[in-house]
From TrEMBL:
Protein name as it appears in the record: Inositol phosphorylceramide synthase
Keywords, ordered alphabetically: Membrane, Transmembrane, Transmembrane helix
Region: Disordered, residue numbers: 239-280
Main localisation: membrane
Length: 280
């Protein structure tokens, strides 16, 4: 009986894992399809990039060149920023999802739904409003740090068949980073849980320094995530678990009978009832 239950539990776990992988595959295929749809719309994407740049100046947002410029004189810092952009985004998301799936399933489901919804909305915006990043928009004056200093995850935009480089808004780097930070804060106690916010803050700085996003790209991603999290149900609190080991029955004395007094010197083993095993 135990062997059968174990086999069913393992089969159910593998089925859940297969569903999760299928969801990732669907989102990846949708992203690839979006890349083909925007092919040939470089002029529109560049014009939209210039419009966003002017809008930021109208809104008095800080100039991105003021952030990137001082770092260009330090090759090591620029390479660190490029490496963070290239190698931290996806692995950090996967590690967070796997940990939550194993330890906090309810929070995993909420994070998975938030990431899927954010990615789906972003794909629609990427197709409907192609937007060139500042590193490809000459008006901004920003440098493509990945191409100049390395490492770079992108090839020439006209021949790149793997990624959609005209999909700057919203920034999924910023949106995903904030989503996993919020999820980890929800399952962490104490003041140290606020340290998880360092990841989205560093990510927001990195995407600007590397010339991959405007400030507004991150702002739009944050607004979309806030709306999505407000709609999704909050996970139920985790139930307390009993320590491992055999459970001992609780011994409870029987109620006294009216009119009789028991001699405290006489043991009352006969008046003892046993409760069935349980939590008490």
């Amino acid at each position: 009986m135990d062997v059968t239950r174990t086999a069913h539990a393992r089969l159910a776990a593998w089925q859940r894992a297969a569903r999760e992988l299928a969801l990732v595959a669907v989102l990846f295929l949708a992203y690839k399809a979006g890349r083909q749809v925007v092919a040939g719309h470089a002029e529109v994407a560049l014009a939209n990039g210039e419009w966003v740049w002017r809008l930021e100046r109208l809104l008095r947002l800080p100039d991105e060149t003021l952030v990137q410029g001082p770092l260009l004189a330090h090759d090591l810092l620029v390479r660190v920023a490029n490496s963070y952009y290239a190698y931290v985004h996806f692995p950090a998301t996967v590690l967070c999802l796997v940990w939550l799936w194993l330890r906090r399933p309810a929070h995993y489901v909420r994070l998975r739904r938030a990431l899927a919804a954010l990615t789906a909305v972003a794909l629609v915006l990427h197709v409907c409003v192609p937007l060139a990043p500042p590193r490809l928009t000459a008006l901004t004056g920003l440098v493509d740090t990945g191409t100049r200093f390395g490492p770079s995850v992108y090839g020439p935009p006209d021949t790149d068949q793997l990624s959609n480089q005209y999909a700057a808004m919203p920034s999924l780097h910023v949106g995903w980073a904030l989503a996993i930070a919020v999820a980890l804060m929800a399952v962490t106690t104490g003041r140290r849980r606020w340290l998880w916010l360092l990841h989205p803050l560093v990510t927001a700085l990195v995407v600007v320094v590397t010339g991959n996003h405007y400030w507004l790209d991150g702002v739009v991603a944050v607004v979309l995530l806030v709306v999505i999290l407000a709609v999704l149900p909050t996970p139920a609190p985790d139930l307390p678990t009993l320590p491992p080991g055999p459970r001992r029955p609780h011994v409870v004395p029987a109620p006294r009978r009216a009119g009789r007094r028991r001699n405290p010197k006489v043991p009352a083993a006969a008046d003892v009832r046993l409760r069935p095993p349980g939590r008490g």
